[in-house]
Amino acid sequence: DDVQLHLEQYRNSCMVEFIPESHRRDKELFDFFNAVFPGQVKRAEVLLNATKLTKLIAERQTYIEKYEELYAQHFHANQRYRRKMDNLQQEDVGVCSYV
């Protein structure tokens, strides 16, 4: 029964924080606790709190969009400038006479 399994897991679970880098994989964590509590550990899982990472990814996306908008504005302003310069150069071609 799934409910019974979840209830048993809940009752027999503990949360460990500040795990050393060397033990931040399921197997290494299991091996450590199995050495401390031989035969008593059924499973060990490393769960990551990705809240901060999610916020950083969203912030990064915001900066990317701002950069793209500024780049597009700069690119189009540069194109307008070049067209104006091309038009001025074409208008300057002609014959000048002095009296």
**Sheet with the most strands?**
none
What Rg is obtained from the alpha carbons, in whole angstroms?
A: 33 Å
Low-confidence stretches: none
How many separate domains make up the residues? 2
What is the H-and-E element order?
A: HHH
Summary of the model, kept short:
Residues 53-91 form a coiled coil. This protein has 99 residues and is mainly α.
Describe this protein's structure.
The protein folds into two domains: 2-36, no CATH class; 50-91. The longest helix is centred in the C-terminal third of the chain and has 42 residues, at 51-92. It has three helices and no strands. It has 99 residues and is an all-alpha fold.
Q: Could you give the topology of this structure?
A:
Blueprint: H1 2-11, H2 26-36, H3 51-92
Using brief descriptors, characterize the structure shown.
99 residues, mainly alpha, 2 domains
